[in-house]
Amino acid sequence: MTAPTEVEVGTGIGAPVDRKEDKKLLQGQAQWVDNMHAHGMVYLGVVRSPYAHARIMKVNVAPALAHAGVVAAWSGEALADEWQGSLPCAWLPTEDTNAPDHKPVSVDKARHAGDAVAVIAATSRGAAEDAAELVEVEYEPLPAVVDPEAALADGAPLVHEEFGTNACYTWTLEAGEVDRLFDEADVTVAQRYRQNRLIPNAIEPRSVFVTPIPATGEFTLWSSTQVPHIARVTLSGVTGIPESKLRVIAPDVGGGFGSKLNVYAEEALALAVARRLGRAVKWTETRSEGYLSTIHGRDQIQEIELAATSEGKITAVRTKLTVAMGAYLQLVTPGIPLLGAWLYAGAYDVKGYSFQCTGVFTNTVPTDAYRGAGRPEATFAIERAVDALARKLGKDPVEIRRLNFIREFPATVTAGLTIDSGDFDACLDVALEQSGYETLRAEQRERREAGNPKRLGIGLSTYVEMCGLAPSAILGAVRFASGGWEAATIRCLPTGTVQVLTGSTPHGQGHETTWSQIVSERLGYEIDEVEVLHGDTSVVPLGMDTYGSRSLAVGGVALYHAADRIIEKAKKIAAHLLEVDESQIEHVCGTFQGPEESMTLKEVAFAAWTAHNLPAGVEPALEETYVYDPPNFSWPSGAHVAIVEVDTETGAVELLRYVAVDDVGTVVNPTIVDGQIHGGVAQGVAQALYEEAIYDEDGNLLTGNMVSYLVPSAAEFPRWELHRTETPSPTNPMGVKGVGETGAIASPAAVMNAVVDALAADGVTDIDMPATPERVWRALQEVQR
Amino acid sequence: MIPAPFDYEVAESVDHAISLLGSRDDTKVLAGGHSLLPLLRLRLARPSLLVDVGRLDGLSYIRDAGDSIAIGALTRHHDVATAPLLRENSPLVAYAAGLIGDPQVRHRGTIGGSLAHGDPASDLPAVVLALDGEIDIAGPGGVRAVPAAEFFRGVFQTAVGPDEIVTEVRVPKQSGDHVWSYLKFRRRAQDWATVGVAAVARRANGGVAEAAISLVSMGATPLRASAAEVAWNAGEDPGAVAAEGTEPPSDTNGSADYRRHLVQVLVRRAVEEAEAR
ipTM of this predicted complex? Predict the structure, then answer.
């Protein structure tokens, strides 16, 4: 037996380890779905409706069939018998939610521009695109409705006639004596905000590749998805392919931001076409096609009211949302706004809480999860409203926040959930100090007094959010159709390396690195000795995938617990081989130290594999699985400060600085955490200043490509100034919380508060997102009138 | 994202290019491709034949032509932006070329392509117009020189006929007395201008003379802001009259009203910047 070896310093929890994933990504060795080929494969071309709303009178695929290279072409009707069920929606919030039938290719009506009406299978992508133009579709155009409030008006065109209304559902949450608190309030503010519709824009477009084995009825579906496990369960239901015959693989996936937390028509179509033709099938969206067929985010109208005392103590919050579902319900469409339902009081202690959300069908691309999903919207409304209250009372927004912070944890909020931990003052202190808040206020005054047309604006967002989805029982209670657990397996191989199987499928987050660090910390393996397997339902059978900032807070904790099980079993074997009592063995980072001798975990793994001499009742091999169901959400919090310059002559807004202080609990890899916040803040700033999917009144998407849909680049941003406080979560042994969405949750409010702050002295009280130069100019024109 | 089918020919010479262009209807010239390829891929342009002039190396040059600087039609924006000859003698052209798109675009896009494409939102057409530049167009009947003021005819329409190509652009040399500015207002670094302003004048008698101001994205073609030019020459506020005679578009970057406001601010600022130079 060998002496204990020191584990290499700096690869465990807290170390800024370089991402293991990057080399293959940078050297072009990643495995993307669109690069896959198979003998005899066909390419799908999807014929999409140019109309937002039209009856499909006739579909003639004959001209397409005559085109060179075309193997087959079908209308929606011709494919109808492929479907055992509707495309899935896993969250119908109420018993009476109107859930429309949603087939991969529409038969009766096109309900949004881009709705699929026919499909081509051809031997090349070019032939598929050429032939798609040749399909003759006779439409009877119908009036369209794109605005969710207009869609609720009497006489509005009905997206789904069978319901007799465009209302999808109304969900309410009420706690405390809200009406009384409003009646007794010294002051109230009532604000109305518009959450602009956003397009997620993952760098890798969606892509699907299916290989069938007709003789056995087996199918392998490769998809650029966040959710291979959920896709397998639900696509089995859509196509009738038994789950046992369906393998889903998410290879390297180039981002998702929630847009690939979904199960799409084209995945079902590729399976159905592969089944019909007995050939491999590929489909990859183009960027502009994705704008018409991949889910969008946000698109809500928010009405929020605060009741408060004359000092600024908020007593009650009342919120009413009108949310565009789009034309159909995708996987989580109706539930997205409800992920913010408990957060409309933000980080503040209130006595009364009222929330009402109405989902509405519109002739637009369906909305669904986009980074933050419900929580950026909630944070925006409360943080903007708190600023409005501060202005009404003539107080500094910092003072109002301090007066209302929740300070005792765990904190069961009036809305009903329990915030695990936090220190909101600590974050705010750091944010004020690092931003130089008082100096900025002085500069703001100086500019104003000097008549400088370039105003300075300072905006705060002190957020708390709930992520790490989710306790299964709570999901059940809100009628979500699956659990929120996650699984991890550790397999100690006999020759000194280790495999980790995780059900949490990465799409850019760096799971391989972070998971390796957890194993390195717990079991003493070198980072490069850990191989993380993921994203293949045959390799990792148990999983709930990646969304809602859940990977580390649920999947990482599962891995931590699996390591405990490895240690427990290995300790028994080590004690047996060292011929001492188990109680005499101490485990330190992969070494089992007895009174005299020790064994490494690697040695134990070899002994467990040979199984020549194991203690009675201990099974051979060293492999353990843990399925972790979190007892609570995780609750990151923070304080962000945006500093903007607004040119009152042109309306241009420039983000000068951005200071983010986040408390995401224990940090495993600070570089990766910083990267998550960088990207999240960038996307939130993009919502505030740049991005907006615009439909005209006929339902044409005016921002149909990246020339008109303004995804900003690094050139538009300052250097992010990131700081952290650390309040470990008490609900898991690692103390970790989610981080993937915090930046996008906090930042739209900070930026818009800054823009309005810059112009408040001019009389401007609100500007819709994104704060385009024209909108800023118009707001100034309004108040000068 | 895959263009509709088209034929493709490589031009071996200017004459060859012209004969290929005349060989059938619906031909298109391919130079740097940065305007044409997106249109092809979106199937908004469906030419029957692409004539690739990219290998006509003789059309890539920047040289001293006496009173003017001659720029070959295939000269890349990057080369225009960085050429010492232009930076010294016509800095407005070099500066504006450096603001086009992003580095990839500037290494592919050409000055001849930019002018011939006739996009009123492009930078170089307005700059060449402000400088009273001259554009050589080669066709079956030989080469003709067209003043910039007569070159731009409408949105994506120029004096270049279907069987013609641009071969050279000439911009006048400017003396040390000249002042200039180019302001490009855009949402993102790589975007086309919501509104752009090119301003150039000669210092004279404590003020300026020969003021020239042209506007990007304020009409169907790049426009000269004549009233603003008169005002600048007279020492009055050119911003106040900058929107006169414009017919700006309304699009997702801004309404016509907003552009009419913005152009006033930008012209005033451009003139201030020029005079401070």
Answer: 0.96
